[in-house]
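Name: Probable protein kinase UbiB
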Amino acid sequence: MKVFGQFFRLYFIGATMLRFGIDKLIPQQRWPWYLKLCRATLFWLRNQHPDASDAKRLRMAMEALGPVFIKLGQMLSTRRDLLDDDYAKELALLQDQVAPFPGEQAQQLMEQALGGPLSNWFDDFDTAPLATASIAQVHTATLKSDEQGQPQKVVLKVIRPDIEKQILADLHWMETLAGLVALLLPDGKRLRPKEVIREYRKTILDELDLSREAANAIQLRRNFEGSDALYVPRVYSELCRTQLLVMERIYGIPVGDIEALEANGTNMKRLAERGVEVFFTQVFRDSFFHADMHPGNIFVAKEHPEDPLWIGIDCGIVGTLNREDKRYLAENFLAFFNRDYRKVAELHVDSGWVPLETDVDEFEVAIRTVCEPIFNKPLSEISFGHVLINLFNTARRFNMEVQPQLVLLQKTLLYIEGLGRQLYPQLDLWQTAKPFLENWMQEQLGVKALKRQLLENLPYWGEKLPQLPDLLFNNLQHAQQIIPTLERLSAQYHHQANRRQRGYFWLGTSAIALLATLALPWPAEQWQWLGWSVVIGCWIPAWWFSRR
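Structure predicted for Probable protein kinase UbiB:
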């Protein structure tokens, strides 16, 4: 029965792609004979949308295939380093249009996760969902009381039933299709479909674990505790499970609702700039950033519209950067906007993003060729996200390995940049970010950085300082034991070297005597026996010393 279900799902995927003409994206000359035969046998499945563009047909096919393919398309829409703009823009229109499952079933799943009836913890549970997505569904309730004894409005997010089985089955067939795409498409290698599906597998399986999302939200909330830039709702971790997330309910304006924001008197310029500041603070101060900041996950507080506050939810996907990545990234941005392409090339090599044997001169020329035309625009119109895309695309020609943390960063930057310019089209992203990057670099490389590193290492040094006399004594004692051995080895080496030198002397003398015997005119032939005697007499000690 399970095999039959998998076969039916494969047929449904294939039939849907044929009905939307996805097979037309592959040049016919690249089809192997067995696929041509298979396509001919499915003659009743024809392209039903011949007038639509290739990108639109791909988007409609993904919508028809369901939530797993929809989320893949949403992820691909941010990968403009892989897809052309028309495909990226079309896939960005994908929305999770998933029918809700019954609220009574959601309640039953929540009670199974908590190990008891919801009435033990909540009042006013609403069986009508507040929001529905491809992986989870959200309901509202009132927490009985918090530490201050006050009821708290909360939302309960629960994983859809049996979604994991569907995801794993679809991922299996996606991996098979990725192999065909790599084989059949002319630029299949450049698209790296197998790597994309591996990245997607990790991302979507992480989203199935709501305890991970809860931990991410707690970390992000702690990082911005007391901030007037970003608010992250409180998570009730004692009630969270792998299948259930309980979080404070927030009331705000969706960041994409421009009319509502303007009606509330929001300072749009400040709101856009604050989004950029929030992003760079997460990346360079905290090394921990919300990597799914699309408009559906961002709200704006209604209070204080003149100094707007961002509200971030859905922390299932986060990115991290180590200190070296942050430094190289900041230096890359600064070098690029200073048009120092030599520095950009050297940074890619120094960071290990491209092989050490890369020709830096050739790499510099390639970066200049691709990036210099960008500066024909005013700085306020330059896209940070496209700067990264151009840099990474150029570096890939020089065998740059895929950096997952940089892919997430690029995706998030495109989100923030798009949001910022949607809110305030005149936003100068570079003018907003440059002081932040320069201050961060000064803190990392200046006197402040040295002082901070000393203070950070001081507890470790303080812990090891009492052990220093013992370590010094043990090393000296060990050295005394090693010195006789070293002296003996040195004497043996010199003895053998002297023997080799004497061997070389006698061998050289033998060679000279041989040449003299064969080449020089002797006064009498009977004297030649003397020359051969000298040759043999020199060769014997040379052989003797070389053998010992």
